[in-house]
């Protein structure tokens, strides 16, 4: 019979040193622990969400050395020496990050489950410097799924922070072209 589990003793935990939201941390971590589980279950930073756990939804997006990644696909031990930023690290004390403020102003969430990932993804997107229009924001954040469908408001919030023109056409619903058959 076949099993995915190793039959011998499990590999030993190793010491991991990294920085999380500006604070140094040192932990003993087993080789199979993902960065997402490390953050949520070992460190108690539950702002980062687990949606699919398979790299499909973006709910777990965090920044590693300023670059956005899906934390569910990253092994914790691979992050040795790196600087992790989660949604808990965005505000400056009581002062919200401009992206957080813009999400509130534009009602860019409903249930809020995807929001931590959207915020971190937007922060990474801004740092990448590849988006120059609302369409490009939409395209480059397409890995962040919102089941509540708050996309127009999310795009508005992000474009406002980036100083890009608002996406007025799509914000009011899809443009329908062509004729209806029958
Ligand atoms: Fe990581 Fe969905 S939980 S991409
Ligand atoms: Fe509910 Fe995006 S606000 S999933």
Written overview of the protein:
Helix content is 29%, strand content 14%. It folds into 2 domains: 14-89, Beta-grasp domain (Ubiquitin-like (UB roll)), CATH 3.10.20; 98-170, [2Fe-2S]-binding domain (DNA polymerase, domain 1, Orthogonal Bundle), CATH 1.10.150.120. It is elongated, with a radius of gyration of 19 Å. Helix 2 (98-105) crosses helix 5. The protein starts with 13 loop residues before the first strand and ends in an 11-residue tail after the last helix. The chain has a 5-stranded mixed β-sheet, covered by helices on one side. It is built from 6 helices and 5 strands. The protein has helices at 35-42, 98-105, 115-128, 134-140, 151-162, 168-171; strands at 14-20, 23-29, 61-64, 67-70, 83-85. The protein is α+β, with helices and mostly antiparallel strands. The site of one FE2/S2 (inorganic) cluster (FES) has 12 residues, from loops.
Strand content: 5-15%
Given helix and strand content, the structural type is alpha+beta
Shape: elongated
CATH topology of the largest domain: Ubiquitin-like (UB roll)
Q: Strand tally, please?
A: 5
Strand order of the largest sheet: 2-1-5-3-4
Oligomer: single chain
CATH architecture of the largest domain: Roll
Please tally the helical runs, counting DSSP H or I stretches of 4 or more residues.
6
Mean pLDDT: 90
- The CATH homologous superfamily of the largest domain is termed Beta-grasp domain
CATH secondary-structure class of the largest domain: Alpha Beta
List the secondary-structure elements in sequence, H or E.
Answer: EEHEEEHHHHH
Tell me the distance between the termini: 57 Å
């Amino acid at each position: 019979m076949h099993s995915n589990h190793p039959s011998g003793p499990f590999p030993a935990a190793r010491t991991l040193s990294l920085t999380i939201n500006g604070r140094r941390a040192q932990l003993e971590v087993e080789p199979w622990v993902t960065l997402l589980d490390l953050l949520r279950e070992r460190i108690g930073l539950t702002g980062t969400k687990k949606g699919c756990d398979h790299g499909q939804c973006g709910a777990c997006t965090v920044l590693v050395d300023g670059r956005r990644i899906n934390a569910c696909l990253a092994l914790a031990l691979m992050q040795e020496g790196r600087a992790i930023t989660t949604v808990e690290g965005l505000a400056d004390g009581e002062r919200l990050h401009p992206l957080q403020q813009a999400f509130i102003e534009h009602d860019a969430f409903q249930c809020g489950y995807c929001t931590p990932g959207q915020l971190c993804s937007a922060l990474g997107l801004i740092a990448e410097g590849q988006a120059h229009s609302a369409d490009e924001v939409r395209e480059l954040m397409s890995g962040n799924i919102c089941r509540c469908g708050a996309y127009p408001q999310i795009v508005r919030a992000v474009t406002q922070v980036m100083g890009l023109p608002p996406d007025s056409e799509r914000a009011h619903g899809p443009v329908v072209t062509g004729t209806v058959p029958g």
